[in-house]
Design brief:
This protein has one domain: Ribonuclease Z/Hydroxyacylglutathione hydrolase-like (Metallo-beta-lactamase, Chain A, 4-Layer Sandwich), CATH 3.60.15. The strands form three sheets. The chain has a seven-stranded mixed β-sheet with strand order 1-2-3-4-5-6-7. The protein contains seven helices and 13 strands. About 25% of the residues lie in helices and about 25% in strands. By secondary structure, the protein is an alpha/beta fold.
Length: about 230
């Protein structure tokens, strides 16, 4: 089955989108990898999707892979293939992921400070108060884009038809922001989470990319402020 290649959103920013069904419930939520070309020409890969020969060719055409990033404790399923396929790349995982996946060769753990590979090109912030995810949010100033993974969903309303009961419980389709389980279960410390949101809102962004749902091309700061107003 042939998949679409990287889709350009800005001069050094691409996304790769693939189908993805959640385990057990089998609900189709899709998934997305974001690619940023760094100043040295190397590629930063955020939340890798399944790697196949088509995608390898497309990535090789964009540049050498320099960084493979698993941005939270849940998005790690396809990381091993990238680590093995691009031994020259450094691999990064969210706090807690090395303990969850000791089989993965992760070179460093992500935090608030950008590693030297993307320092000055991408900023980042560990979203605190949600230890089940320990998601690291990234900001690409040159394209005014923030990268979320699971803290924000933006599934179209018609997705509800795929798994009506599950999506009703989740409250995600047709709603931009953290879904019901994130609000009620994942976020444990609302004060810490609020501080993280305030830090993110100090970034000058317009576009929001997330792993599940439609990219929000404009109005990002206002949407994020509204989405986390419950904190």
């Amino acid at each position: 089955m042939q998949h679409a290649g990287p889709r350009s959103l800005a001069p050094t920013l691409w996304v790769v989108e693939r189908p993805f069904k959640l385990p057990i419930v089998r609900a189709e939520v899709g998934t997305r990898m974001t690619i940023i070309r760094l100043n040295d020409g190397n590629l930063f890969l955020h939340s890798p999707v399944k790697l196949d020969s088509e995608l390898k060719r497309a990535l090789n055409a964009l540049g050498p892979v320099g960084a493979v990033v698993a941005p939270n404790r849940a998005h790690h399923l396809f990381v091993r293939d990238y680590i093995e396929s691009y031994p020259q790349a450094r691999s990064y995982g969210a706090p807690g992921l090395p303990e969850k996946r000791p089989d993965l060769r992760l070179d460093a753990t992500l935090g608030d400070e950008a590693p030297r590979e993307w320092q000055g090109v991408i900023e980042q912030q560990l979203f605190r108060g949600a230890p089940a995810l320990n998601e690291v949010v990234f900001f690409h100033p040159s394209s005014r884009t923030v990268l979320f993974t699971d803290l924000i969903f933006n599934l179209p309303a018609e997705k509800s038809a795929d798994a009506p009961m599950f999506f009703w419980l989740l409250g995600a389709p047709g709603h931009f922001g953290p879904h019901r389980l994130v609000r009620a279960r994942a976020i444990r410390d609302r004060t810490a989470a609020r501080r993280s949101v305030d830090t993110i809102l100090r970034w000058d962004f317009d576009r929001v990319i997330m792993s599940h749902g439609d990219v929000l091309e404009t109005g990002g700061r206002e949407h994020i402020a509204s989405a986390f107003a419950f904190l």
